[in-house]
Every structure is written in C-alpha cells, then in structure tokens.
Amino acid sequence: MKRDEYLSRAQHSLALLREEITVAQNQGRLDPLTIAEDVLCPVLQVLFDLPELTNLNKERQNYPAVDLGDAENGVAFQVSATVRTRKIESTLETFFGQGLDTKFNRLVFLFLDEKQQSYPRDRLQESVPAGFDFKVKRDILDLSDLERHLRNAPPNKIKEVIRILDAELREDHLASYDLSTEPETELLYANLVELTVPDAIYFGEVSIDRDKVIKRSKEKESLRNLNKWASWKRVIQTVLLLDEKRPTSDFKVSGGDLYTFHDLRQEGERYSDLVRPKTRDSEDSEVFISQSEENLNLFKNLIDRTLGEMLFNQGIRYHGREGEYFFFNPNDPSKDRKVSWSRSKDGRTVYDSLISDDGEVIEARHLSFETSFYRVGGAWYICIKPGWYYSRNGRFSVHPEIGDKRSDKKRQENNENVKNHFLFISEHIRKKMQSGLMDDKKSVDLELGFPVELTGGPRLPDDQWKPQGEEDHSEIPLFD
C-alpha cells in the first residue's frame, strides 16, 4: 500500500472518530470523552513516541487537570470538547495548583472540537510559572493537528494508527451502524461560503505622533488612558475619537505602515489623513499575498476586520475575548430581535432576553458565529461556524455560566438546526452586502457568494442527531 493510501485510510478513520464523538454526544447514549480517551491514548502513544502513556482517569477517578499521562517521559494530555481560552486557563491553574508540574514537564491540550484560530499567548502565559515549557502554538491541538502529525509520520507509524483506529471504531463504537448497505445520499454544506475580496490593498507610512496621542488621551476624561505599550489599533482609534469620528477598525498596522482596503490615495477617504501623502501606495491583492506567508496572514486579518466593520452597522458585534460575532438589539436590549429570512415567513430569532421587574436585562441569548478564511486554488472562502453567545446584560458582558449554557443548547439542537443557522447567517450577510447597507460608502468590494454544496454526500438522519424525545428548539424562546 502506498503512503498516500495509508494517509487516506488514517484520515478517514479519524473522520469516523469525529463523527462518532458528535453523534454520541448529541444522542446522550455514551460519554464521548471516554471514547476519545480510550481510542486516542494508543494513537498518541504511536504519534508522539510515548509508550507509557495511560488513561489517568482509570487509575484515579476524575484525575485533576489532565486525562492521559506518561510519567516516564513527563508528558500529560488534557482531552476536552471545550475549546475556549477560559477552559485552558482553569486547567493550567489546577495543573500547577495540584503540583502536577513536578510529575510532568509538558502539558498538551487536545480538543475534540475545532480549536479557535488563535489564543491570547500573553494572557495564558500568566498562568504558567517561569521555567515551565508551555507553547501555545505547539501545545494546543485538535484532531486536524493529529492529521498533520500523521502526514509527517513514517509509513510504519501510519499503518499502526490505522490498525488502532480500525479495531477500536469498528469493533467497539460503530456497532450500531450498518456499513454493509449502500448509504443514502443528500445535499450537504461544508460551512464554507464563496468570498469576493478586493482587487487591491492600500498602504502608507503612519504619520501619527504616538507620544502626543497618548498624552492627549490622558487629558480627556471621556477617553481611556493609553500607555506607551498601547497597540497601534487603539492609538489610531483614539485619534479618530479625538477628531470626533467613530473609532473604526478595518485597518492593520505592520512595520510602521497602515494597510487597508480603502483607497488611501483619495483625499478624505477613511484613514488617508493618517498616513504620509508621499508614501501612499497600492498593490494588486494577488501579488501582495503571493510574496510571503506573513502577507497572506495580514490579508486574512484585514478581511476579518473589514467584515467586522461592515457587521457593526447591522447590530452584530465582535467579542475579542470569546473570538466570535454575535447578534444583539442595538436599539433596545430589553426587546427580542427577529430578522427576516427567505426560508421562514416569520423570520429568525437572533436575540432574546430575560427581563427583571424594573425592565433591566438579567441575561440574554444571542445567535453567534465564528469565522475563518481560506484560499483554495486561487478562490477565497469564509468558514462560518454557528453557535450561541450568552451575556449578562444583552451586550458585551459574558454570562458567568456561558460554557454550561452553550453545552445545554448544543445538546438540544440537531443537524438540521445547525445547518439552518449557517444558511441564515450566510444569507443575511450576503444580502446586506449586496444592498450596500453594510458599508457607509460601499467603498470596499468585499462580498459573500453562496454556500459550498456537496452533492452525493452521505445522508445524516436527524434521528441520529436529535436527543431522544426532544423537539425542535431552534425557535423556542430562551425563557418561559
């Protein structure tokens, strides 16, 4: 068997594992973490050369902070379905609080769900004592990262992983599936939407005197004081506030230059006054991103910031700490919000709240979504991952039990619910962009196309996604 065939089989088995975890969790018929720990432990033994790696929860029930460990090599794994920053922070605190760093010198997080695009490195390092080797990029993994390790593994390791996954999944965890018959097919969506990006990117040398701006921010009571380490984003937004303009964010500063999709060469255009006139320039987008990986990442970041600025005008905000966009009611947080949708004559509820007797918002639920951007074969796509954000006040304040509330909501929803959330969000953004309502001057050519459709995909029966006895909760109010 060729290496590519080995890889294909191994990746297929990992995909089956991911499916089994999702179905098991939604049906509530077994603990997906138990499956993951039992199946992934021998896989990790092979991939990371950890022959003594064991399931610590079998040695001691509810082992603190970690699930798998190899004391001989000093490596421990936390296997979790929760991918949030706060989960990592709490695990680090428990890990060091229990003195487990005396037994393990490396802690790795393995998420069963897709991890976030990025995590706040400096914030997480605050929970790590000096001298302990913890690297955010290296030690926070998901199942896609295991596939990456597989691609770099020698054939004998790939074959062993295939053997482990095939035995575990087929014998123990896929017994309820009839694999002998030809599966029915249906139209599937990949959470990807076609994206048209601007043809050019504009840039110029920043002309702002940082020290003066920082000093002025301290003199004006309505502004938050800037310190000398303030990011360029905050500095430039402060300049806009000082000029009595809204602090927009569809720009990126790198190497002393400001980058944006707004034409800086035109006087009066957004940000044109903030760069030196003689340095204002532009470059073809394709040429720019082909020059380096750094340029490609800058371009993706600029797409996201531009989208965020457009969404701002539609009552959709980006929560940096949670890493997601969420709908709310900008006019009156005490009132629920519905948005029209072509697939429902009554529209879709995107925000609802619990109100106290004196009219204050006690807590609220918001339809939310995460974004990431991909360039495949010269085409651009945005990945939209629907979810739910829970606040204390209908705005930015995160609900203290947000993790539990999200988990409860996820258990209530089936595949059809999630698909409809995705189709609604993509349609809403596309139509607002086409109408020009998402940008004051429609000066940036950023538009959504249509979702990527996968014809002939395996049929995913809803009775395997919806919990037993549950009804469709997609339009049930948050509170009775």
Protein described:
The strands form three sheets. Strands 6, 11, 12, 13, 14, 15, 16 and 17 form an eight-stranded antiparallel beta sheet that branches. Strands 1-2-3-4-5 form a five-stranded mixed beta sheet. Strands 8-9-7-10 form a four-stranded antiparallel beta sheet. The protein contains 14 helices and 17 strands. Helices cover 36% and strands 24% of the residues.
Shape: globular
Low-confidence stretches: 171-183, 467-480
Structural class: alpha+beta
Query: How many helical stretches?
Result: 14
Rg estimate, integer Å: 25 Å
The total beta strand count reads 17
Q: TL;DR of this structure?
A:
The protein is α+β, with helices and mostly antiparallel strands and 480 residues long. It has helices at residues 3-27, 32-47, 56-59, 85-97, 121-125, 136-139, 143-151, 155-173, 210-219, 232-242, 285-290, 293-312, 402-412, 415-435; strands at residues 54-55, 68-70, 75-80, 106-111, 140-142, 185-196, 200-205, 252-254, 257-260, 281-284, 316-319, 324-327, 337-341, 344-355, 361-376, 379-391, 447-458.
Set out the fold topology.
Elements: H1 3-27, H2 32-47, E1 54-55, H3 56-59, E2 68-70, E3 75-80, H4 85-97, E4 106-111, H5 121-125, H6 136-139, E5 140-142, H7 143-151, H8 155-173, E6 185-196, E7 200-205, H9 210-219, H10 232-242, E8 252-254, E9 257-260, E10 281-284, H11 285-290, H12 293-312, E11 316-319, E12 324-327, E13 337-341, E14 344-355, E15 361-376, E16 379-391, H13 402-412, H14 415-435, E17 447-458
Parallel strand pairs: 3-4, 4-5
Antiparallel strand pairs: 1-2, 2-3, 6-16, 6-17, 7-9, 7-10, 8-9, 11-12, 12-15, 13-14, 14-15, 15-16
